[in-house]
Amino acid sequence: MDSYDQVAWARRLKVKHLESFLVLDEAGTLTEAATRMHMTQSAMSHWLADLEELVGMPLVTRGRRIQLTPAGVIMKRLAIGVLGDISRTQMELGAVAEGRTARLYIGSVWAGVARGVPQALAEFQRLHPYISVTVSESPFGNLLEGLQNKQLDVVVGSLDARAHHARLEHRELFEDNVCLVVGRASRLWDAAGPLRLADLLEENWIMPPKGTLMRAQLDAALLGSGAPWLLPKVETAAITTLQALVHQGDYVGVCSEAMAEYQAALGNMRILPLDRTIRFGPVGVVWSRDNTAEAVRLFVEHITRTTASGAITDPDR
Questions:
Q1: Cβ distance 207 to 286 under 8 Å?
Q2: pLDDT band at residue 234 using 50, 70 and 90 as cut-offs
Q3: d(Cα 67, Cα 163) in Å, to the nearest integer?
Q4: How do residues 274-314 score in pLDDT, each as one tens digit?
């Protein structure tokens, strides 16, 4: 088989095929997928049969909910990659049309927003004014998905096991801890330490969602201090929600030390003095090994250098 025959099926593949296949995988049934695609179920079924004939093997197994076959998993990966490239190209073309010759998409967790990204970014753009930057804030898991589907170039976040994926590169920037914080509305605003976690169990807690590294580290610290499991009043991954709640009410919030120190320097929060240190872990910069863009290389080198040199330490800078 010559090289043309090996990719003949791909030459007949259309973007619509890939979009529809992702909708089908997310919907779980042909009926729901047809509704979302504004098609009849019969037309959706016929489309799927055509796609499977084009690929040459089944892509799903039928049941109450469709399941991807091994070939379907491969096609899903292709769809995510191709559609991500198309979306990214569209944004880059828009940047060129506006006279911007390069664009960098950065995702960051709270710690990076507080210590690292804004300060490094300001200096980076002075050095490279032709690079336009978009920054988004989200939990680390969401950011890694952004790297996978090529919506993000660089992520600044906690370096847990997910950062050690074979297709990712990373560099450590700084070590971070978990802090408890209060606002002026809290009766603990002027509390003298050291405070024990066991003495704070009856407080109104604002905690990160389950499944996040910060929540896991806090839960481990509670167990280590002999404190039973507690039920938070609020669970949120949004720093703006945390800020608003501790400002308005008698809450104890949980956030990274980098963010806590930043907010404390602005007078928005106070860090509760605990009798123990709750380690969060290293925060670093992560990017895809396949992304060879010059803007990515320049930013990774810059934020690594500025963090290592101590230039990013004071939130008032």
A1: no
A2: very high
A3: 28
A4: 999 999 888 889 999 888 888 899 999 999 988 876 544 44
Overall pTM surpassing 0.85 (yes/no): no
Greatest extent of the chain over all pairs of C-alpha atoms, in Å: 77
Please list the residues that pair with 249 across neighbouring strands: none
| Rounded Cα gap, residues 72 and 28, in angstroms | 13
CA atoms of 102 and 298, how far apart (whole Å): 12
* Residue 202 phi, psi dihedral angles, 5° rounding: -90, 0
Best CA proximity match to 244, nearest among 273, 270, 269, 207 = 269
**Do residues 175 and 281 touch, judged by C-beta distance below 8 A?**
yes
What backbone torsions phi and psi does residue 2 show, to the nearest 5 degrees?
A: -80, 170
Contacts of 169 (CB under 8 A, 6+ apart): 286, 287, 288, 289
Under the phi-then-psi rule, with left for phi > 0, alpha for psi from -120 to 50, and beta for the rest, what region is 99?
left
Find out whether 159 and 286 touch, Cβ atoms under 8 Å: yes
Amino acid at position 181, single letter: V
Closest alpha carbon to 183 in 248, 103, 105: 248
Structure tokens at 169: 């590169």
Closest by CA position to 287, among listed 151, 175, 103: 151
Answer left, alpha or beta for residue 178, where phi above 0 means left and psi between -120 and 50 means alpha. Answer: beta
> What are the pLDDT digits (tens) for 69-103?
999 998 898 888 888 778 767 766 776 666 555 77
